[in-house]
Structure formats: C-alpha cells, structure tokens
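Check out a protein:
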Amino acid sequence: MTILCVRFQLPPMYEAALPQLLGLLEEFTPVVEALPPDGALADLRGAERYFGRDAVELASVIRVRALALYGVDCVIGAGPSPMPARMALRDARPGLTRAVPEGAVAEFLAGKPVAALPGVGAATARTLCEYGLDTLGRVAAAPLSTLQRLVGAKTGRELHEKANGVDRGRVVPNGVSRSLAADRPFDRDELDPGRHRRALLSAAEELGTRLRAVDKICRTLTLTVRYADRSATTRSRTLKEPTAHSAALTRTAYDMYEALGLQRARVRSIALRAEGLAPAEQASHQLTFDPVDEKVRRIEEVADRARAKFGPRAVMPGSLAA
C-alpha cells in the first residue's frame, strides 16, 4: 500500500484551507495531486522508506497533524495504486484508515457494484447491468470480447483491467486548480428531486454572478453530490463553449444531475465548481438568433449592476431562470 486518498472534512465554503492541507501532505511526499474541493492523492513510496513506516502508519500521523494544526479531521483510503485507494476511501471512517493490500485488490472489488468504479457513468453501468454484469466480480470474470462488444473496445479493455485489480493510473503532482465553487448543504438529508434542482439553480446562478464579477469564463463544470452515508458522486463536463452565462451553467448542471439517475437518494449537499477559468475577453459566443437567450443575457447585465449597487440580495435566487 503506497497511495493514500485523503478527503478532508472541511466545513461548507471553507475550501480555502485546502492549499494549507496539501502543504501538510507535501511534508511527507512531493508527489501530491489535489482533488478539489476537499481531497488529494499522495504517493508515499519514498516516504515509507525515508520514515521507516508504512502508509497506514503515516496516514495516522497525517490525521493527527491535520487535527492539531487546522482542526480538520479526514477520512483516508490506502491502496497499491490510485484506483483502489479512491474506492477504499468510500469505506473509510474518521479515525480509521481503510487499507487494501496489494494482493487483495481483486477480492476487495469483487462485491462492489459496477457503478462504484471510478469512470463508470450511469449509461455504462445500466448497459452492463442489463446483461447481468452488476458487480465488478462478474465484470472481471466476463470475457474481454464480451465487454468490448457491450461498451466499446477501449472502454471494455480498461473496465476489464480495473475490475481485475489492474490500475495503470498514477499520482500526478499539481496545485489547486484555479476555480470557483458554490456549495448548497441541506438542513436535513433531502429526498425531493425538486429541491435538488433548486439547489443546482441557486449554485449555478451564484457561479455565473461571481464569474462575471471577476471578468472570467469557465471551460468545465463539476457537480458533486454528497449523500447521507458520507459517500459522494462527482461528475465533470466540458462546456460546448467557455461561458459565464448562468443559464448555460444551469442547463449543464441539470444534465449532469439527470445523468446520475438518482432514485430517492438521501442527499446531504450539492456543490458546483467552475474550472478552467480564463479571461472573459477570450470568450466566443455562438449566435443563436434566439430572442429569449438574448433577453436573458440583457437581464443578467441589469441584475449584475443591481447586485453591484445594492448587494447580493438585490436579486432573488432563481429569478433569472430561462
């Protein structure tokens, strides 16, 4: 076990602390990959030799330091490569590191639902389940040719390898990406899809407003849905054209939410992150000749001026929905 996947339990809208926490990990290894808004991967191969401790022991030290220095607890998964470490994180609890030994990856994966594998979306999972391949153990036992016929040559090969515990991924050192985030926690675990959508609308409008205020556009939108059992689903989508237009961000957020296929999921919070920021002057707007779209953009300009003059509450959330 050489890879740690760490998720810091940051309070909502407190993600500014993430760079400091990444610095804590970098005291043990320079190979740290940020996973905004609250996580990271760390490759401890060199650290294990240097400190004379294994990854699980080092994880305990990291947890204690995070609590002592920043008052932040964390959950940690450990594995021989990034993929099992990420999946082990879902079984981890505060104060206890969930570790998957190198020789036990396939056994650990066997009972997991196919949708739990990173990179497997709702459509792929649905296709596999229709043919009885609903667990990773069954996917691992299926002939490679069968998987390739069902989901394509490249995807089928990657799926077959990962289900058998073969992970070719690696930790890529980076910094916290330049991004903006909007988090919408619920007062209680929320089952109502209508409330989920209203939270998405509010978050998308906030992102659009903040982007336009700093003259930025975003290329990618990331949706994170956190559930009552502390697990989470994250999906990202590259926009058709970089934008700061709230209506476009809202449509993309709705599309990602619908693609999750949630059925009576107990949702604890919903977060949107705008990534790949660039100056607004680089934006290219595809002319649609749609009077409704142009009207919404003009209303946005008026609303932005109202917020700048009278404060953020000058325009009620959801009032600009197209």
